[in-house]
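Example 3.2
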Amino acid sequence: MQNLTILGATGSIGASTLKVVSENPSAFNIYALVGGRNVTKMAELCAAWQPEYAVLSEEEDAKQLKSLLVPGARTKVLFGEQAMCDVSSASEVDMVMAAIVGAAGLMPTLAAVKAGKRVLLANKEALVMSGQLFIDAVREHGASLLPVDSEHNAIFQCLPAHIQTNLGHCNLSDAGVNHILLTGSGGPFRYTDVTELPHKTPAEAIAHPNWSMGPKISVDSATMMNKGLEFIEARWLFNTSKEQLKVIIHPQSVIHSMVQYNDGSVLAQMGEPDMATPIAYSMSYPDRIPAGVKPLDFTKVGELTFLEPDYSRYPCLALAMEACFEGQHATTAINAANEVAVEAFLAKSIRFTDISSVNERVMSKVCASNEFKQLDNLETILELDRMARSYAREIVRSF
């Protein structure tokens, strides 16, 4: 029986993780559920799963949650970042699902790493913001890192075992890898006339054709910023050179990513577009367990198509790929700017196409300065994150 803390329990990844747990009730026990501000959802989860701890972001929300739990409930309610770190690093915990969206997930995820846990990484921003520092911490503290994003999990499954157990420090060339093909659906606007994009609404942007995701990640999929962040994450997970990493659009989302070897072979991981599959593999690696996902029926798949990315349609993707090999300061800045810009778009304060403008202006300003070129500790990374958000908010107010 493995004790599990779920960071981001009230979100879509949290729901899929609990789906896998329900398929394997004798293998996993929920130690702690961590959420943001969705009190009602957290109350439902506590009633269903009876965790030792439930943690929310704000004190007021924690008080409300306590009032919703039945008298004498075993679940202890906590709040704040430190509490999130505590339930991620507790000695009773075996594995941590790191699925808090955005920069807010960095500290509790790092706490799990420093406690030597099996970390199921669904929060790509942890690597986007702190790349080398994060990877080095995994090795230093003996943590086990398993990628949960469907694309990175697919790549992981297509690589040799000695690469899988040496993430961040592996040598793809020595393993015969020519390059990695990171697939993306292209989002809901992949066939939309580019001239119509400025007029797209939040409701249209979050209506993903293949996947069920939260609003922020869904908007990132529409801009393909999500793929840009995954590009940066893949660079750190698999220690790739610029030439070894490519993005390709695959509208059907049946092939989740591929690895091409130097003998011409291509290995692909395929399956239904359901996050329970990569979650189950990360939870049980190197074994496999039921995920509650139906097998892929090849007679009903139809055609599989592939397209090169159109960077005029997806300027956020181009910016993120540029930032990836520009340096840590660039990736930290563009991630911070994007979180602010997407929030503003969802609030209808800016247009869909303004997201890339905010990202570009913030990244350009940071890259033009020498102040943050050397990010060798967490404090400077967090300071740059705060500064980039401040820049982004100024730009948003100017629209």
